[in-house]
Amino acid sequence: MKKSWQNGVVALMLAPALLLTGCVSAKSDKPELVGDVVPRTVIPADAQKRADIRLQLAIGYYEQRQFAVTVEEAGLALQAVPDFAEAYSMRALAYMEMGQVQAAESNFLRALNLAPGNPDFANNYGWFLCNDNRAAEAIPYFEAAVGNRAYQSPGKALANAGACSLKLRDVQAAERYFSRAFQFDPASLTTNVNLTRLYFDRREFERARFHIGLAVNNGVLDVDTLWLAIKIERKLGNQSAENELAAQLRRRYPSSSEYAAYQRGAFDE
User: Fold this and answer.
1) Where are the domains of the chain?
2) Is there a common fold for 34-115 and 189-269?
3) Half-sphere exposure of residue 145, counting CA atoms within 13 Å on the CB side?
4) What is the C-alpha to C-alpha distance for residues 73 and 54, in angstroms, rounded to an integer?
């Protein structure tokens, strides 16, 4: 069950407050964590230093997509500091990429129990739930992450909530989340592409054109999104813009079904 998870995952860094304040709450609109919050023990400085070094190595291997080595390095960090929440979270991300769902979830929950106020952990666990076909369970974790004023990447959690809302077929909620994400990060390729699709489906072509223009300026479009940009310009009668995008499609994806559709004029298939 190999999946691509990284688009929605916040990169883990060595910092004391990486994820979700208020994740554990008696209120019904907040996620409940499994088990009791684990008290932290005093760690000798040399042990913490060894654990920090191992965690940095784990992060490096994760970025290189060497997930098995990431798991090993995170495990060595935990040998030095058994209650190291960041190491559990890093190992969870690696297990997630490896498709080891049970191991990933166990490590996510351990990290959240150790650091229930960490918004990055909440966002990452929410993304895990969303990709495990548990989108309804994921939304409160994104909300908890965004609700933490110390969280440095609220746009990512909001965009993830939008993607999960689309899985739930709640288009109105998806638009609200993506619109909020846009306020935090107007240059986000993911957010702009999703807003483009929503407005195109509603035949609001000018609004779709605005967001696809930002996407074009801030990232390399895949073939499906480039084809969507061409169809928007076609709908608006902007021939020169359509021709320019079509030239990109021909140059970058000459063998694609999208370019074949363009050649035969099949814009509404």
Assistant:
1) 34-115, 189-269
2) yes
3) 30
4) 6
pLDDT over 70 at 111, yes or no: yes
| pTM, entire model | 0.81
Q: What is the second-level CATH architecture of the domain 34-115?
A: Alpha Horseshoe (1.25)
Q: Which residues of 237-264 are buried (b: 16+ CB within 10 A; e: fewer)?
A: eeeebbeebbebbeeebeebebbebbee
Provide the CATH topology of domain 189-269. 1.25.40
Please give the residue that has the higher pLDDT: either 34 or 258: 258
pLDDT tens digits, residue range 128-149?
999 999 999 999 999 999 999 9
Q: What is the pLDDT of residues 251-263, one digit of tens each?
A: 999 999 999 999 9
